[in-house]
Amino acid sequence: MAAYQDEGGWAALSDPTRRAIVERLAERPRAVGELAAELPVSRPAVSQALKVLRTAGWVLEQAEGTRRIYRLDPAAVGALRDQLDTLWQRALIGFAEVVEQPAEKEQGS
Fold first, then answer.
1. Which residue in 30, 46, 51, 97 has its CB near the most CB atoms, within 10 A?
2. What are the domain boundaries of the chain?
3. At a CB cut-off of 8 Å and minimum separation 6, what does 102 contact?
């Protein structure tokens, strides 16, 4: 899945409209028309944003009659969380090292 294997997945979330779509799909699956009715952009703009999100691996689609229902890919969301957890842990370790350095210098003096 491209969403968590390369920075293209992150880039897909850089657009405010695409982020708004992801936020809405996090609540529940929706069709293009439903998303367009909730957003200040046209239906074609929503379709284009969904295409980018699908290509990046964030969104799955399922045919229901003549409609396509879009939902977040749980694997992509889980991978994003894993990446953020890793970044957070690295930051905490870095902060701890900085905080401990002055204490070590004072003890050695």
1. 46
2. 2-108
3. none
- pTM recorded for the entire structure: 0.75
Contacts of 32 (CB under 8 A, 6+ apart): 43, 46, 47, 50, 67, 68, 70
Which are the contacts of 42, defined by CB distance < 8 A and separation ≥ 6?
36
DSSP E strands in the chain: the ranges are 30-31, 59-64, 67-72
Q: What is the pLDDT of residues 5-51, one digit of tens each?
A: 455 678 899 999 999 999 999 999 999 999 999 999 999 999 999 99
Contact of 1 with 73, CB cutoff 8 Å: yes
- Tell me the pairing of strands 30-31 and 59-64: unpaired
What gap in Å lies between CA 23 and CA 9, rounded to an integer?
A: 16
CATH 1.10.10.10 fits 2-108, yes or no: yes
